Amino acid sequence: MDKKPLLGLSIEELEDLMRSRGMAGFRGRQLARWIYLRRVEDFSSMTDLPTKLRDELPEDHSVTGVRRLGTWVGSGGAATKHLVGLSDGAAVEAVVMRYSYGSSICLSTQVGCAYACPFCASGAEGLVRDLTVEEILGQWFIAQRHLDERNERISRLVYMGSGEPLANYDAVLRSMRLFHSEEGPGIGYRRMTLSTVGVVPGIEKLSAEGIPITLAVSLHAPNDYLRDRLVPANRSYPLGEVLDAASKYAADTGRRLTFEYAMIKGVNDHPDLARELAILLADIPCHVNLIPFNAVDGCEWIPSDPERIEEFEAILGRMGIGATVRRPLGHDIEGACGQLKRRHGEV
Ligand code: SAH
Q1: pTM higher than 0.85, yes or no?
Q2: What is the pLDDT of residue 343?
Q3: CA-to-CA distance for 22 and 143, rounded, in angstroms?
């Protein structure tokens, strides 16, 4: 039988686990410190635990349940991609981005993706399965351990890797609560962003959670006609419904929304579309992230010319919509937006 990883258990659950093994509850707190704060993977190094516990825990438990299969550094050190091996032989990718204000990790939430956006490599092979909460935390664990060597800390989380986070709702929400917890990594909700293709029931559910994370919606087009083509999920959740749910999220949480718009040459980058987008978003507290399109295998689209992107940004700005062009990171290691794909354990 697989050993149950301890990463992904809350402090209360660790305390209960210790009690169920005939130990005092505070041993759970000690374990949490070793795992979440010191990132020790080996029970024998947990020196303040009784020897009996150190010897017996590995029979039933592992610390993470994931393995680092490979690490690639790109963009002059600003992007690091880790290939994270899962217990069933599947693997997912997580990318750490270094900015002047600190490091962010882009987390995957599923192996593959069911939503089949034609320009995104993550969905090319369909959905394989949801990640568990310990596999989501495991990506952070591996990346943070790697940064520990440089005394750096991951201070932001973006749920923008492979998969649709709102289609794996419970594990994603639980991972956010664990990342936030004081005994865990202690990352503030305001430093977490969840990006969705626009799963309306998920956005509505998230509004009621009372956690002020940033919601990012992958828009890519200002009307249903074009969005149906770029984001097939639009046929189930049309633009109007997505924007209603997102606006309600903004009202309920007081958080400004982010809209992502990949700039694809000759497809969605005409200045008229910038004007249409500005009118569409006029009454919504939001910011638009323009993402220069990243080339992916099997899709012939190419990025818009830089002047087109600047013009698009300027039109939005003139019409009162804040927009920025996202700095492309990780191309050279296939770690940029849309390039994360299903990989297998062998490297
Ligand atoms: N399923 C979620 C999370 C994936 S996020 C979502 O759709 O939002 C990854 C972001 O990168 C999304 O905005 C996605 O539309 C965008 N993206 C995908 N492929 C891309 C590509 N080739 N170039 C630029 N952005 C891309």
Answers
A1: yes
A2: 67
A3: 34
